[in-house]
Amino acid sequence: MMFSKLLIANRGEIAVRVMRTAKRMGLATVAIYSDADAGAMHVAEADEAVRVGPAAAADSYLNADAIIAAARQTGAQAIHPGYGFLSENPGFVEAVEAAGLIFVGPPASAIRAMGLKDAAKALMETAGVPVVPGYHGEEQDPGFLARAADDIGYPVLIKARAGGGGKGMRKVERVADFADALAGARREAKASFGDDRVLIEKYVTAPRHIEIQVFGDSHGNAVHLFERDCSLQRRHQKVIEEAPAPGMTGDVRAAMGSAAVKAAKAIGYSGAGTVEFIVDGSDGLRPDRFWFMEMNTRLQVEHPVTEAITGLDLVELQLRVAAGEPLPFTQDDLAIDGHAFEARLYAEDVPIGFLPATGTLEYLRFSKAARNDTGVRQGDEITPFYDPMIAKVIVHGRDRVEALARMRAALADTLIAGTVTNKAFLSSLCAHEGFAAGQVDTGLIERDLESLTSESQPPLLARAVAAVAALALAGGKSGGADPWGSLTGFRLWGAAQNFLTLVHAGEASDVRVTMRRADDFKVSFKDGAINLQLVPGAPERMIVDGHAQPMQFALARAGERVSGVTVFLDGETHEFTIADSAGDVGEAGSGDDVRAPMPGLVKQVRVTAGATVSKGDALAVLEAMKMEHTLAAPRDGVVAVINAAEGDQLKDGDLLVSLEPEKG
Known about the structure:
Layout: E1 5-8, H1 12-24, E2 28-34, H2 41-45, E3 48-53, H3 64-74, E4 78-80, H4 90-98, E5 102-103, H5 108-115, H6 117-126, E6 134-135, H7 142-152, E7 156-160, E8 169-172, H8 178-193, E9 198-202, E10 207-216, E11 222-234, E12 237-243, H9 250-266, E13 271-280, E14 290-296, H10 303-310, H11 314-322, E15 339-346, E16 348-349, E17 355-356, E18 359-360, E19 363-365, E20 371-374, E21 381-382, E22 389-397, H12 400-412, E23 415-417, H13 423-430, H14 433-436, H15 444-447, H16 449-453, H17 460-472, E24 497-504, E25 507-517, E26 520-525, E27 528-534, E28 541-544, E29 547-550, E30 552-558, E31 561-569, E32 572-579, E33 593-595, E34 600-605, E35 612-613, E36 618-624, E37 627-632, E38 637-642, E39 649-650, E40 655-659
Parallel strand pairs: 1-2, 1-4, 2-3, 4-5
Antiparallel strand pairs: 6-9, 7-8, 7-9, 10-11, 10-13, 11-12, 12-15, 13-14, 15-22, 16-17, 18-21, 19-23, 20-22, 24-25, 24-32, 25-26, 26-27, 27-28, 28-29, 30-31, 31-32, 33-40, 34-36, 34-39, 35-38, 36-37, 38-40
């Protein structure tokens, strides 16, 4: 019998997504939240919400006792864990069931069987599922593991045995790099999963990451819902996923689907799960060239692409299976309809190494032509405490060509200001010739990283709009999403010409703005000039050298002063900061200081005062948003000052290391 009230033990987009299906099914919903999320979207959308602790995930979203107490307090009969946090913690499942509640997911025994990668691989071998060659044993002595890597043959992959999501994972190309990579993987695994044990696997040189969505029920039924290709990755984390996989054939799909169902049945699986395979794509997809990697015993981030090609609501299926209902279909009832893509839109600074970013979403508009799974709204803050995902953009088409065209259009129509994002990078990927042709593997991004992350100078029109917006609104009070609305009767008093400096990607441009008459400007740069005329009553339109064009932008303020302008033009986003003069630009980029690029915890300081370093040498390791980031020397030099120690919590911009000033 279906329960009537559901608590979602998660946050962000997955909490919102689960709630919407639950509400459609007539279920009451309960949210939990930390102090950092008190005003979050998932809290606002729930029927009830309960605080479970402070901002740190360990004290809130990982606080099993507080979550179960919240369910009892509100009368929730079932708990949906989402993904991440406690979703694959068998102890939490047992605690939920001991409290007389329903866990929306597989039994603890199934999670435990797949929770440790080495034990899972041994189990899969017994079940007849092919596994990747490697060392999956208990011995964890660094010397022994190094010898195991030698025996397997480089390159190898070090993987946290208790982990997922790319955490605690390192690719090692050479013997000389093994020790450092092992130490880093163990630190990250310990911080993320409380278990620093690892396994060593052969790294497949032309790898594709293809996973099979499986579903089981408590009546012994299990099926697969076809495959997803998740080969577009960076730092072992997925960027764009699609279904079905490019180049998939009927015999390979049947072989992989059969193996995945075998895996599910071997552990008595019920609910949604994903069996992940590494596939050798060097000679096309073949039924004897895929190997089991791991099973995710939960709903996946990328489940919407499976929903798009099957027409099923996977969350609804989860809830019905958890309530004891059998699966309403057999394998023969299922079919693939068209093609789907999902792009993960993150707050991150791509050009400096995909570093997570923070900030307030001052402007946020999603494309109406796509499904947008999100847990944030305009005005919300991306904090350093959790994963910096803004949204998942999902599109569906009759075939891969149509679906990819729709993804390009949806990204172009997605407008975000207030934090740096990976939108331009996603757009570059969607325009990549090899990806468009279906030639995907997990090394594509790394191979073409330079071209995918290159930044071009913003066009003259974008710079001109930014300059006029910054000057016209510098003393005004723009409200809402219509900053031009404050320009009624606007005049630039005083000199006919106004000067400012725009900064984009560290490069400064001096601008002269001449007001020829009210709301009519000539904007001049060293490389050209352009005329802009505001259109009365049409705040997002202006006349550009005689032609009307739509304009959209957002402002950032420091007190009463405009400190930045984001201009959206022709599907691209151009961000500018406003300097008081050209002399204000570039002082922090002298190469003497290494600062925290985001809030984070100092895990290691690799140098001492007086040490001689070369450009690119590792100076410190910072942990932020659940990942480790190595901070490198910007130039050759001598360490003059170390301003942080292991265990220090730093803010964005805090000084870590200073080098002695360059002589000359």
